[in-house]
Design brief:
single chain, mainly alpha
């Protein structure tokens, strides 16, 4: 099955010789670009959250690490804060994409300033 030329979703539909999914075909070029940007932002945020979770698990599974007690605690706190921030960013990216898909709401930072 081919991948959409815009969002890379699987599709069997072609327009002008290029594969395009139903969701992208129904959007204006600007809204198509917004959708792609939001999908990529969610993907990047998810990857960051996964990496932060893996780092947190690695640090916490390394106990006792042999480091002096305050340093070990600080490492856990730092990893926990990074994981929390990454998860919040992922949830925000998911909400932005969901708002766009459900109601067509374009985030202000992606609105053209003509």
């Amino acid at each position: 099955m081919a991948r959409c030329a815009y969002c890379e979703a699987e599709t069997q539909r072609y327009t002008g010789g290029s594969p395009i999914c139903i969701q992208c075909a129904d959007l204006t070029p600007h809204k198509r670009a917004v959708r792609i940007t939001l999908i990529r932002a969610l993907h990047e945020a998810t990857m960051r959250a996964d990496a932060a979770t893996a780092a947190f698990i690695e640090i916490t599974s390394d106990i006792p690490s042999g480091l002096p007690h305050p340093d070990g605690i600080q490492r856990i706190h730092n990893a926990s804060r990074e994981m929390d921030a990454a998860r919040k960013a992922m949830m925000a990216a998911h909400s932005r994409l969901n708002d766009f898909i459900e109601s067509g709401t374009v985030p202000p930072d992606l609105t053209p300033t003509h």
